[in-house]
């Protein structure tokens, strides 16, 4: 199970990568594996204002639906069109090409380190 | 609650399967990818562990008559080596379970029931068979079931070391034949729950793992993939096959789900006859197939709307891996059940248009 050390994680199985004032958001490999093959994603549109903890989209697999929570507050910069077109990228490369959206953020919600996240999913 | 382990459990763990609690059994939901497993069954072949299914045997001179009384169909008329789909009805004429019955001998039958209904099905058959001269045995925990499904299924069985595949090429759909694997008995049914050609192999637990490994070894050159219950569900949905607890239940009569032909009303006496005779109210919901555009699928329990109100509910739904569009079973008011009617499915707050279409959604005959 891949849990890159350079990312921050939420209890909702999302990761964020902070690049200056922008946070890039995706779901973890653990979450992608649990959902199964993802066949549809609904992502917030550019310009949308989101607040940490709220539901901003969803990822559907053949078997189930997972809600996407905003890990930060701010304005959506970009939704990943590649993932909208090819949702399977979330399964094949959850920390890379399978990123979901980026946010020009004002504050970050509750996040944890890779070690803490690893401990959480081991429970 | 402790989950029951399949006799093939060690193999699934070696393969790195993800597991799910299915009716109290710890069963593989997928090995790697639901979609890859689904496509393998449509294009080459898949191997499934279905050891959670219930196997109930009836033996004795009264076995055929007992089944005619216990089930909706006329099982006494099926010849040796045939299988028949049937229903166990309640007194009220609703569905206790759907089953497949194999005739193994003049006086011997195997009833295969759903894992989740093992106890009610076995109890119903035992109670109903009481006044007939036969013995009812629930051997669910001793018998393993392995399914090999897909266009390459026959070739794989014929290539399997130690497996006597003679006669399987000629075996018709819904026929069964006793065969051997390394000298052990295997009942082979040309049956399945995927909409593809395929076989179901019943074998005692002790020899199931060896059989699975032999089938996998033979299947390597035929692109055989180990398949979990997730793809089994999308495969059966595409094939228009009902799943108990979704399309069939104690609240539904056969006529509501298009199964009136499974009930043989020419039989004078069977459990559920009066209930079926009583019929259903004019606005009792009917089972239909729904098809949508786009990628967003309705799922079980999502409301179905028309004319600004709720007219039914989705019972199963998915983005069809084979067809590429969303499909669903739904129970809706009969006024909207006509083919071609447009309704909407409330997909978590978004109204997705859906059209009532004929079942099945997918048929392998239509493809060739």
TrEMBL record, chain A:
Residues 22-104 form the Lipoyl-binding domain. The keyword Transcription regulation does not apply. InterPro entries: 2-oxoA_DH_lipoyl-BS, Biotin_lipoyl, GCV_H, GCV_H/Fam206, GCV_H_sub, Single_hybrid_motif. NCBIfam families: gcvH, PRK01202.1. The lineage of its organism: unclassified sequences, metagenomes, ecological metagenomes. It holds the Pfam family GCV_H. One of its GO terms (cellular component) is glycine cleavage complex. It comes from freshwater metagenome. This is Unannotated protein. Coiled coil: none annotated. Belongs to the GcvH family. One of its GO terms (biological process) is glycine decarboxylation via glycine cleavage system. Keywords: Lipoyl.
